[in-house]
Amino acid sequence: MLYVFPIVEGQGDERAIPVLIRNLLNNRFEHYEVEVLHPYRMPKGKMKQASEWPPASTLVFNRLSERVAAPADKGLVLVMCDSDDDCPVELKATIQQNVAVSSDKIELHFVAPLREYETWLLSAVQSFAGHQDCVDPIPNVGNLDQIRDAKGYFERHILKTNRFYSETVDQAKFSSIIDFSIFPEDNCRSLKRFVDIFARILQ
Fold first, then answer.
1. SS3 helix, strand, coil % of the chain, rounded to 5?
2. pLDDT tens-digit profile of 124-178?
3. Prior bond of 137 cis (ω within 30°)
4. What is the pLDDT of residue 201?
């Protein structure tokens, strides 16, 4: 069994990340023996502070350690936050120097969507063709690296007129229908890192 404990920054992520993980594991890897624990929320500003990590990491690793009892069990602590204008490499280094992995059965990984989580939705935008909330046809999205307001872009170009984007509703809704058979990560390096984390841990 794979046990995943996400650490995320916002309410939208709290709902969407478990959905996205199960979608990826079930539909790309045909892996169903997974439990995604309810995410631990930590604002990005606190993620950068060393003093915030001891109580959070103790709670997370204790809960995972209780579950990874069988020899084949694995645990994953997945830390996620939007990169915004920060360097993802520097964010990763900051977090990893503040969190110690206390078990050889538990891995720690960090991934930061380029600027916003919705960049991942845009990379998979053709998954939403025919959806009742989306325009028809779905337009192709150009260079994702150039889109600074992915939420706004999704609302203006993908959703129907007068349909407003809601993080707490739409992140999870559209994450559940991303079609991983079209390899959306080919268009987005940070989504590829997310996929690769699970590809490696399932080997």
1. 50, 15, 40
2. 999 999 999 999 999 989 888 889 899 999 999 999 999 999 999 999 999 999 9
3. yes
4. 95
Q: Could you please report the per-residue DSSP string of 69-81?
A: -STT-EEEEEEE-
In terms of C-beta distances under 8 Å and separation of at least 24 residues, what long-range contacts does 91-97 make, across chains too?
91/47, 91/48, 94/47, 94/48, 95/47, 95/53, 97/50
Quick one: which H or E segment has residue 154? Answer: none
Stated pTM of the model: 0.94
Q: Could you tell me which of 81, 37, 44 has the C-alpha nearest to residue 59?
A: 37
Give φ, ψ of 70 to 5 degrees.
Answer: -75, 155
**For 89-114, what is the mean pLDDT?**
87
Sign of CA dihedral 85, 39, 103, 71: negative
What's 43-68 look like in SS3?
CHHHHCCHHHHHHHHHHHHHHHHHHC
The whole-number pLDDT of residue 170 equals 97
Nearest to 21 by CA among 80, 61, 69, 63: 80
